[in-house]
Amino acid sequence: MAQPGMLEPDAGGRPAAGPERASFGVAALRLVSRPRFWRPLISLAAVLISWELLGRYVLTNKLFFVPLSDVVNATIALARTGELQHHFAASFTAIFYGMLLATVFGIAFGILIGASTIVSDYTEVHLNALYSTPLVAVAPLLILWLGIGIASKVAVVFLISVFPIVISTASGVRNVDARYLEVARAFGAREEQIVAKVMIPAALPFVLTGIRLAVGRAIVGVVVGEMFGADAGLGYLIFTSGQTFDVPTLFSAVLCLACAGVFLTWLVQRLEQSLVRWRPAVQER
After folding, report:
1. How far apart, in whole angstroms, are the C-alpha atoms of residue 94 and residue 155?
2. pLDDT for 92-125, tens place per residue?
3. How far apart are CA 231 and CA 91, in angstroms?
4. How many CB atoms lie within 10 A of CB 15?
5. Residue 150: which CATH number?
6. pLDDT tens-digit profile of 169-203?
């Protein structure tokens, strides 16, 4: 007989599954049985199959469109030579530093203009003007100033991704429930304590939504910067592939950017779920 605390062996002499393994299995089974687990996979499979059939039997001119299998073969060939990893690292190094700067500056400035009407009055017109300026017109100037290295790409990513964070953060701070502010002031909280302990936690869902929107804009920004002037990166690979009519390589670079965008957005969503646990969960239908 097994001692207390030990697992009873099964018929084959192996230890039975422990409670941790059993609970993990139950959780995995519940996840797989949920309709929301299968819906994205079914949708993705339908799109990929349609892509292959469309390129194989409908749009057969490979100067304009190629089936998915050709794109996969091109991606494997680029990965074997190390070219894909080189361009991927160049693009996402710029995205990482640009998003880091945009997040830090965007949250700080958003809190400032959301909490202070004086700062908002002085800066809102400039913020709206810069936000409505097309980045395509600014990117060549940044490359002229900073060169074709990583600095110009970081600047482009920063400029295109900082505005959603600023605007979302400011909106979150301005929309804090007035009752929370009244209670904090009733207990004698100073203004900096109200900002740190009331406004920022209440605005957190808005901040994370702004970061999620900024991720997609950052990917667009790095591609724009690399198309105007670069010697590496997925945007540079798209530009050179288009110039040489290498359609499989072009689609390969676009697909890598799309997959990276989905993954980064998923990370921000998981972060939002872990930090904003008081929000009600979305009910399945």
Report:
1. 9
2. 999 999 999 999 999 999 999 988 889 888 888 8
3. 11
4. 11
5. 1.10.3720.10
6. 999 888 888 888 888 888 888 877 888 888 888 88
- In a domain, residue 149? The reply is yes
Distance separating alpha carbons of residues 2 and 9, to the nearest angstrom: 8
Residue owning tokens 């062996």: 9
**Residue 170: Cβ-neighbour burial (10 angstroms; 0-12, 13-18, 19+):** buried
Task: Confirm whether 244 is domain-assigned.
Answer: yes
Cα–Cα distance, 265 to 255 (Å, whole number): 15
- Does the pLDDT value for residue 1 go beyond 60? no
Host H or E run for residue 275? helix 247-275
Q: Write out pLDDT tens, residues 246-285.
A: 899 999 999 999 999 999 988 988 888 887 766 655 455 5
Query: How do residues 47-102 score in pLDDT, each as one tens digit?
Result: 889 988 988 888 877 778 889 999 999 999 999 999 999 999 999 999 999 999 99
34 Cβ contact partners less than 8 Å away, ≥ 6 residues apart: 284
247/46 Cα distance (integer angstroms): 22
Domain assignment present for 245 = yes
Structural domain boundaries enclosing 215: 68-275
Give the number of domains in the chain: 1
Question: Residue 48 domain-assigned?
Answer: no
Q: Which residues pair with 9 in a beta bridge?
A: 15
HSE, side-chain direction, 13 A CA sphere, residue 163: 18
Q: Mean pLDDT in the chain? A: 82
**Which residues sit opposite 15 in a β-bridge?**
9
Listed residue (34, 226, 38) closest to 142, CA to CA: 226
